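Worked example (supplementary).
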Amino acid sequence: MGDIFKALADPTRRHILDELTDRDGQTLFELCGRLAMKHGHASTRQAISQHLELLESAGLVRTRREGRYTFHHIDPEPLRNLTARWTAPQREEQ
Amino acid sequence: MGDIFKALADPTRRHILDELTDRDGQTLFELCGRLAMKHGHASTRQAISQHLELLESAGLVRTRREGRYTFHHIDPEPLRNLTARWTAPQREEQ
DNA sequence: TTGACATGCAAGTAACTACTTGCCTATCGT
DNA sequence: ACGATAGGCAAGTAGTTACTTGCATGTCAA
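After joint prediction of all chains, the assembly is encoded as:
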């Protein structure tokens, strides 16, 4: 639950989600390249890989291995109604 | 923008928002007491105060001074459509 | 099968964050 | 005015986090 907010707290991870929203199912290298181009990220491959691990453990990204490629898919489902407990008239603590 | 996600990344700050949603306009001491009771928080007054500062700088809490009391009000407006860029069909990078 | 490509694993480092501690200011009731 | 209440300021500390570096594993094409 709180893992989702922690995952979203980092700008690089938000850029990764942006990238996957723009083009789902990218590999690690693909993401590195596009992040460097679009957002000026100079992060190494390992840095992005660790961010992807964290996003996966938060349930926001799912991984599909195929041969030597690993495709990353965004799962926006946990993001729905994430802040409803504070915006909605009815509160739902957890 | 990212300040909002950072603010929400901490469980104590989420509990503070829960408390203010339940009962808006609490003072610092009031919040400390109710957090200790409901959520088992043993945090000191200063800890809660610093969390409130961060929530205020993120635009989620507004402060109203009245005599020696400082009332804290939740502003859920920044939380609306916070994750829309990933859940909606149309993306909006920032 | 050999080399190149795509990725994973793990330890170390620098920066950040939550929290504490100690002291100070301001307001109110008596 | 005095004590009590409500809160603020600032430095220090322990734990966390993002990132790097170096090496290892697995897959594919020629």
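Two points are worth noting when inspecting this output. The helical segments of chain A are 2-8, 11-22, 28-39, 45-57, 84-87. The beta strands of chain A are 61-66, 69-74.
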